[in-house]
Amino acid sequence: MAGKATASVVVLAVVLAALGAAPARGAGYPWATRIGAAERFADQRQGTVSFAVVDERGELRGDHVHRVHNSASVVKVMFLVAYLREGGVRRDALTGSEKHLLGAMIKRSNNDAANEIYERLGNGPLYELAADAGMEHFTTGPLWGLSEITPRDQARFMYSLGRFVPKRHRGYALHLLTRIVNRQRWGIPPVAPGGWRLSFKGGWSGRPHWRVNQVMLLRRPPRRFSVAILTRDQPSKVYGERTIEGVARRLLEGYNRLTR
Q1: Is a pLDDT exceeding 60 seen at residue 10?
Q2: Which pLDDT value is given to residue 43?
Q3: Which H/E stretch holds residue 226?
Q4: Fold held by 27-258
Q5: Measuring CA to CA, which residue among 74, 246, 223 is closest to residue 151?
């Protein structure tokens, strides 16, 4: 009986090989080791640090992934997607003024542009998007920068970002999020693996006790994974940026070499 079972396993392996079956890309990456290193670094930093990764197989990993943080400007990704889903927008070409407004909000993190988009949207479309994305904790605040988010929800949202954008505007949204101005490309971008398209947004607020956050989708079609790193009570904006970079470095070091 054991011999027959062994033979069946061998036959199955041969069949899978013939069909070109192979382990998922990224399957051999030492995420447990990397998460542990990032946790130890985060524990040594001032303030509070939480992070989540959705890997190439769609599995969620991280540290304090359900901890609630205020969003600062990372919620502008939700503003962008919710606006593109609106009934008068989803099937139509964007106007020049719409592209100017959305571009300023995302590329330069312009708050006046975000205020205008938020006034057009209201809370309803944002809650609808959060529900569609399976977010477990999302609330808007008296100020949109005080919206409550978690690393788990933001990493999952970014991982599946294209699914929530109407097809007509999908390429536009993903590309716009790659065009962040140079002075805001701190945190994850300097240590991200080479050759991946980085669709991301950072956010910061709250001096003297800073909230500094960043969320990112990394794409190398057909491959993709996502990262969300959220902090609070950072002694300065620069300190928070370095906190995010340190966490990201420990999560992603050697990624391309180990996932060929």
Answers
A1: no
A2: 98
A3: strand 223-232
A4: Beta-lactamase (3.40.710)
A5: 74
